[in-house]
Amino acid sequence: MLASFAGFLAIACYLLACGLLCRQLAHKQPINKLLILALGFVALPLHGYNIHQHIYQSAGLDLGLFNILSLVGWIIACLHIAISTYRPLLVATLFAFPAAALGLLFSELFHAPYHALTNLPRGAESHIILSVFAYSVLFMAALHAILLVLQNKALKHRSKSRSLLLAMPPLQTMETVLFDFISAGFGLLSLAIISGFLTLDNMFAQHLVHKTILTLLAWCIFGVLLIGHYWRGWRGQRAVRFTLAGFGILLLGFYGSKLVLELILQKV
């Protein structure tokens, strides 16, 4: 009961922060960065407590689909608040906080038929943590790719989107942040893949072959993008397309497999 109360209070904080930002942008008012981030700071420990109570069960670790959604949402909110403290990227609140609130809401309302993990093989916990963080960081990369698309459109229609442009940093800063996220996410994903091959005894028996193939494909896409960026100067729309394609494949492998196995086949 206490965990649910904390969860719904965190959702209220996330949505209130988004509502305030939307109102200030719509009325072209100065953005109250301190208040919006303060609401996020209040939500984080409440959300974290809720996650802890949902995942750590007496029978073991419950890493079902909806608990993972909530955990990823919490990490995304943490990353967004951290980067917004020193970068003018508060507009990403409109994406990051709803993602966190939605993941938390799903974990409260739904429960997948998932068998809690016990007696994990050595290194498995590290693999799980790396995978979740890699996905969360690359989610932020995809989010900033979408913001780049919106910023490009806003620059072509300044009169209609002036408030959005004023809330966003220069295009060059946005691209720098995008590749910072991609580089960090690629590094984490590389470590997750290596740890996975070291800890998984039978990839086929654990219904992980499709997830592994999709993850490796996404890893290759992000790798090609980084090589193209640092060696050939790739940026702009090409970077956006590669980022969204790589994340889309990763999303399919990360969540698609859990959705099919847990909710449709119920084999987990």
The total beta strand count reads: 2
Indicate the radius of gyration in whole angstroms. Answer: 19 Å
Lateral arrangement of strands in the main beta sheet = 1-2
Helices, by number, come to: 9
Name the poorly predicted regions.
Answer: none
Mean pLDDT: 84
Overall 3D form: flat
Give the N-terminus to C-terminus distance in angstroms: 27 Å
Strand content: under 5%
Alpha-beta content class: mainly alpha
State the share of residues found in helices, binned by percent: over 70%
Main sheet overview? 2 strands, antiparallel
Order of H and E elements: HHEEHHHHHHH
Describe the structure.
This protein has 268 residues and is an all-alpha fold. The chain has 9 helices and 2 strands, in the order ααββααααααα. The protein has helices at 2-26, 33-55, 65-84, 93-109, 124-156, 162-166, 171-199, 209-232, 236-265; strands at 56-57, 60-61. It has a two-stranded antiparallel sheet with strand order 1-2. β1 (56-57) and β2 form a beta hairpin. It is flat, with a radius of gyration of 19 Å. The mean pLDDT is 84.
